[in-house]
Amino acid sequence: MNTLSTLERRAFSRLTTPAGRMLVVAADQRNGMKAVMNGAEGPEGISVEELAEAKSDLVAHLGNHAPAILLDPEVALPKVVDEGTLAAGTALVVGMDASGFETVDGLRYTRYVPGVTAATVRELGGDAAKMLWYLRPDQPASVERVAAEMEALVADCEAAGLLLIVEILTYRLEDESPEEYAARIGQLVVDSARVSVEHGAKVLKLAYPGSAQACAEVSAAAGGVPWAVLSAGVDHATFVEQVRTAVEHGAAGAMAGRSLWKDSLAMTAGEREELLSTRAQPRLAELSATIDGAVRDAASAPGAVGVPA
After folding, report:
1. What is the pLDDT of residue 294?
2. pTM to 2 decimal places
3. Mean pLDDT, to the nearest integer, of 196-203?
4. Does some domain include residue 308?
């Protein structure tokens, strides 16, 4: 297990529910968020200024009701901090990855936000950082490059006393059918967790691997390193059940984005406030209760898989 330092442990505690489980509203999307805003003719129909205002409203009417929120350094930050929108009691996770990816020999690789380092995250008021890597753990070239990048960033964040959340997304190869990929997803997530921990990850953000058994295998592969489930655009009801299953089998919680807010980002501020308050906030409350309830159920179930300490 990759042990958290005192500073990292303190930062992790700020990302958790009353039961000590991770719950972070993910709002670092840029093109993805533009695409779901009502009235837009595709992502190009939303200006940077409009996106910034939508993110500010999302923080004010949803993120401030969560233990923590994940935001980007290109649109949301430092605006929501400098204008006092982000509540003092809500921890800030700063995303370091840029939108999209580059492709080399059929393999996807992360694009970094230019100039954003561990020191930048601190300057923006961040309590923690998040970096996304695309990974195919069954492809040696993918593992080699991602592992090297991960080790370097883990070292930089450790030197700065900054907690780094490692997000891993798997993907379908060009010569792989949808059916072949679907059959491999569970093992890909398990192996991605193992590779990440082997190369220094201390907190993970992973896709739901597809079943209770696969969740238990992810937890075993993580070897005590906390992992949170990402929502991947599924509907809220589906995500709640995925999180319940994952937490009952060792996951540390959830980092939820579109499942909470994708149908609440109307174009006008008044409509957004109404939808975020009456639709997204209750979803967040349900997700929090599900996470903490699943922790209690897992702890009391005979033969249950343990959850990270």
Report:
1. 72
2. 0.92
3. 98
4. no
| CA separation for the pair 101, 213 (Å, rounded) | 31
Residue 305 lies in a domain: no
**Average of per-residue pLDDT across 21-35:** 92
Residue 276 scores a pLDDT above 60:
yes
pLDDT exceeds 90 at position 302: no
Q: Which token pair is 232?
A: 């991947």
114 burial (CB, 10 Å; 0-12 / 13-18 / 19+) is exposed
Domain that holds residue 61: 6-300
Given a cut of 70, whether residue 173 has pLDDT beyond it is: yes
In the chain, the number of structural domains is 1
- As a three-state string, the secondary structure of the chain is CCCCCHHHHHHHHCCECCCCCEEEEECCCCHHHHHHCCCCCCHHHCCHHHHHHHHHHHHHHCHHHCCEEEECCCCCCCHHHHCCCCCCCCEEEEECEEEEEEEECCEEEEEECCCCCHHHHHHCCCCEEEEEEECCCCCHHHHHHHHHHHHHHHHHHHHCCCEEEEEEECCCCCCCCHHHHHHHHHHHHHHHHHHHHHCCCCEEEEECCCCHHHHHHHHHHHCCCCEEEECCCCCHHHHHHHHHHHHHCCCCEEEECHHHHCCCCCCCHHHHHHHHHHHHHHHHHHHHHHHHHHHHHHHHCCCCCCCCC
- Domain CATH for 250: 3.20.20.70
Give the pLDDT of residue 162. 97
Pairing of strands 227-230, 253-256: parallel
In a domain, 53, yes or no: yes
Helix 212-222 × helix 236-248 angle, to 10°: 50
